[in-house]
From TrEMBL:
NCBIfam families on file: hydrog_HybE
Superkingdom per UniProt: Bacteria
UniProt protein name: Hydrogenase-2 operon protein HybE
Xref: InterPro entries: NiFe-hyd_HybE (IPR023994), NiFe-hyd_HybE_sf (IPR038530)
Length: 171
């Protein structure tokens, strides 16, 4: 097993993905030049560090080991489920030489719907708030919205982003 630093991974993650931005992603058409690499809201949940990674080409929910868990045995691209307070989410395993193994769940890609880092950061913070919110079964009962209210809500990522940014659902 590799020697892994189990402290908050934000700085290491940002450094690794800045290098990727400057090398592998340089000049790629899917890069939004208004955005930069930033790790948002990383916190420990059991044996993993969880947060959102913003890059000029994607936004992903990321899990990195907080202990000496045997993650190296997982080949890249393997599906894994991770339990959060709000429910279970599917991730793919990935590996970067300077980080070691990690789990990633894509939120947005490409990133052209984001005008600047403030918008991207606000969405990342909102995503983390939802991921760490308790499941509906853990929340005291409240009246359910009517069927017409449910149908009016957009379930798309674009609709979610528009609602967070106060732009309503795009047509």
């Amino acid at each position: 097993m590799t020697d892994v630093d189990h402290s908050n991974p934000s700085g290491r993650l940002e450094a690794a993905f800045r290098h990727i931005a400057d090398t592998r992603m340089a000049g790629m058409a899917l890069v939004n030049p208004a955005l930069a690499v930033e790790a948002v809201g990383f916190r420990q949940l059991g044996q993993v560090w969880v947060g959102v990674l913003i890059t000029p080409w994607s936004m992903s929910l990321i899990c990195l080991p907080a202990t000496d868990a045997e993650w190296e045995a997982l080949p890249s691209g393997t599906k894994r489920e991770v339990e959060f307070p709000s429910g279970t989410y599917e991730f793919l395993t990935a590996h970067e030489a300077v980080l070691g193994p990690y789990l990633t769940s894509s939120l947005f890609s490409p990133m052209f719907d984001f005008a600047d880092m403030d918008q991207a950061r606000a969405v990342a913070v909102a995503v983390l708030a939802e991921v760490f919110a308790p499941q509906a079964a853990d929340i005291p009962a409240t009246p359910a919205p009517s069927l017409s209210t449910k149908l009016e809500r957009s379930a798309s990522r674009r609709g979610f982003l528009g609602a967070l940014l106060g732009q309503g659902s795009p047509s």
